[in-house]
UniProtKB/TrEMBL annotation:
The chain crosses the membrane at residues 34-55, 61-81. Coiled coil: none annotated. Residues 179-188 have a biased composition (Acidic residues). It holds the Pfam family bPH_2. This is PH domain-containing protein. Residues 217-234 have a biased composition (Polar residues). It comes from the Bacteria. Residues 174-234 are annotated as: Disordered. Residues 87-151 form the YdbS-like PH domain. Keywords: Membrane, Transmembrane, Transmembrane helix. PANTHER family: BLL0215 PROTEIN.
Amino acid sequence: MAGIGLFRMFDPKVRRHLISDEGEVVIDEVRQHWVVFTVPMLEVLLAAALLVAMVTTPIGGQPVLLAICLVLLTHAFWNFLTHHRDRFVVTNMRVMRIRGVFSQTVATTPIARVLDITLQKPIIGRMLGYGHFIFESAAQDQGFREIKWVSRPDDRDLTIQRVIQRTGLRASASVDVVQSDEDSDDDGTGPIGMDSAQEVTTTTAPAHHSRPAPTSAPASKSIFNSDRGNWTDD
């Protein structure tokens, strides 16, 4: 119980960094593989052996052994906290890396920006069940370039790929919905989808009334007057 309480006391508390009001949830919280605690455990065992050796050591040499024990225990505890508080978190919106003991660093990037993931599994890693992730994306400048000591690396890789795939499908579906909404907002003013009635106004030219043709004057007759020697009109 004391060990569980110690773990909870130094837990990085990942969920306080979630955007809960937007529906963000943790898909996977990756702790480092137990192999990283091998060195701290060996240091603790060595310190315990030195404490036992102090019983048979002359009084003059005991302060030296005690100082070595304190250094080993302090270094082991620091390494334990460093590895324990280093978490890689995958949510339905982004990936995060939280690390640090006294000063904490939180690096985040949207899941859509993760372009390529390389999984490296050395021989010992394949035997013990750990691997290293190498991210090729814009996130590499934010602390995501290399994530080491990932336990169950194959399962974690599949989890990340599924989240990336689902995020891409949701993004494409959102684009389709936006395009369909824009098409349905056609008000009929353009040449496509004209639904409003069109009023066609025809203009009738005024009728041109024909004027009566002018009547020609009756033709006059000219008669030659032989007495006067000239022509007279009839």
